[in-house]
Amino acid sequence: MYKILIVEDDGIIANSVMKFLQNWGYEVELVEDFNGIIDQFVRFSPQLILMDIALPLFNGYHWCTEIRKLSKVPIIFISSTSDNMNIVMAMNMGGDDFIAKPFDLNVLVAKVQAILRRAYSFQGEANLLEHRGAILNLSDTCLMVQDKKVELTKNDFRILQILMENKGKVVSRDQMMTHLWDDNCFVDDNTLTVNIARLRKKLDEEGLEGFITTKKGIGYLVED
Q: Tell me, which fold does domain 3-120 have in CATH?
């Protein structure tokens, strides 16, 4: 089931679109806190966003730019301001399509279906993991901290992935060794310690001190 996030401040439009999409089998959420759009995006991890342009606080172009720092999730702009300038602006800011208000709900669904087919026919769903403001994108191995992209090595990414996927649980050293290296390949146990230390230093430099906790003699965890 694909998940769709609707960013629309007109309650009547938002609810009618949500109900129509739910009837087509989609899981839909409405944004209600227009200051917490990114937080909801990370938590809900939708496969598509319907974005109005005129919104409280910041417009849809702003939020599209912020989302594009984290994800390539398809974004369809919906707006009553359908002049050529706004359509071009929407595409240039990272939008995938534009629908002018008022619109036919059947046309909206057709566009949603077409974009989802194009975006996900040959790839898995985009996934984001978040902790203490750090956002790990599993689809492009990218870590974002306070709007800054942090360069990760392959092992940095794998360590963060297994720890953030098991947030609040201790991951044993053996589990991490298996996750990082092939079982048939001999790796000195100290190599894991070195990799963890290098990653910790990188996280500390981004203000994420204590992000990874050591459980002596057991393993590591990211505390919930």
A: Rossmann fold (3.40.50)
Q: What is the pLDDT of residue 120?
A: 80
- Cβ proximity of 21 and 112 under 8 Å: yes
Query: Beta strand pairing status for 48-52 and 75-79?
Result: parallel
The CA distance from 84 to 87, in Å, is: 5
Structure tokens at 4: 């769709």
152/159 Cα distance (integer angstroms): 10
CB 1 within 8 A of CB 25: yes
Q: In CATH terms, are 3-120 and 153-221 the same topology?
A: no
Alpha carbons within 13 A on the beta-carbon side of 151: 0
Q: What is the pLDDT of residue 13?
A: 95
Cβ proximity of 218 and 172 under 8 Å? yes
| Sequence spans of domains, the chain | 3-120, 153-221
Query: Tens digit of pLDDT for each residue in 80-93?
Result: 877 778 788 888 88
Q: What's 153-221's CATH class?
A: mainly alpha
**Cα–Cα distance, 17 to 144 (Å, whole number):** 32
